[in-house]
Structures are given as C-alpha cells and as structure tokens.
Amino acid sequence: TPRLKDGIKELNIPPMDPFIIERNNIEVRSGFATGRVQVRNVRIFGISDSVVQSVDHRMDGDKVSMGLVTQVPRLYLEGNYKADMMINEVKMTPKGYFNVTMTDLVLSSQSEGELYERDGHTYLRLTKFNFEPEIGDMHIYASNLVPDPALNAVILDFVNQYWRQVYKIMLPQTRSTWEPMFLKVMNSFFAAIPFDLFIKKN
C-alpha cells in the first residue's frame, strides 16, 4: 500500500501514513482496572509499509465474505491521553503524552459486506470487520502516569516487561472501540474504488 501513503485526493481516500485519529475514547473493564482513556491527536506511522500476504474471498449473490492476512514491519503511534481510572480501588486521573512501537505485526482479518451498483460499477460496503493482531514485540511509553518520575519509570518498566499479558487483557476490552474505526476506514477505501476492478462478479 505505498501508494496510499499520501492519500488519493481525487478518490477521497485520506492519507494513510501517518494516519490521524483526532479523538477516541477507550473503555476499560478488566479485573483490576475500570474506567475510560481518551486519546487525542494520535498519529500512526507505518501503515503504508504493510504487505498483503494472502486474500481469500467468497461471494453469494451480493454478499461477500473476505479474509486477509497482512504483514506490517513496524507501527509507531503517538499522541496525548487523559484517563479516569479505578485501579485496585485507587482512583487515578493522569494525562500526558504517549507513544507505542510495535514490530513484526501479522494482521489476520475477517470481513463481511454487500455489493451495490453506482455509476455503472459494482462497489463493496463492509458491514462487519474484525481482525486478530499478532505482535512480535511492543514498547510503550507514557508520561505522567504518576507524579513521581522515578515511579513512572518503574511502572513503564513493568508494563514493557509483561506487555504480552497486558495486551491479552486489553485487546478484548478495547475491541469495541477500534473495530468501528477500522470499519470506517475500510469503507472509505471501498467507496472510492470499484470492487469490479479487482474481482469479476459471477
């Protein structure tokens, strides 16, 4: 997807690298932490370096189901956060800057959609989109988790040492937040490019 790095203005496809998220709320409901994290002015770098490894699609009339496996060498995201959390019955309201670096990602996605006609072409509108990210390694930084910089560093060391366990907890908890966002992005793409340019409708 290198061609999508700067977007395709005439097709109304937004720039994908960096991909901008102006604001999003993440609800957290786990055994030890509950609350909400708001992120703002998030920039995601590396999407244009992704490579689609395999595509599997099935069509039944106007219904389409599709599976993709995509490899992303490196994703880097940064932005600002504000949290309102209860962690082990302790209320915390930190805010600050954060960044996350992820390497060797493999994204296996499953989607469902329906075909529709427009201007003599067939387009695809996705109705469901979900994926399972497998991450080779991840490093997290956040400022001002606690007022004491030394303690902040200790917390980050712990999180980065046990990031796989944290990730397994957070992924299902935040799925309802990020899946609709990716569905919107994918539909912007498919609304701009006719589906019949890729696949003939039988």
TrEMBL record:
InterPro entries: Haemolymph_juvenile_hormone-bd, To_sf. GO terms for cellular component: extracellular space. Pfam families: JHBP (PF06585). Gene3D superfamilies: Haemolymph juvenile hormone binding protein. It comes from the Eukaryota. This is Circadian clock-controlled protein. It comes from Bactrocera latifrons.
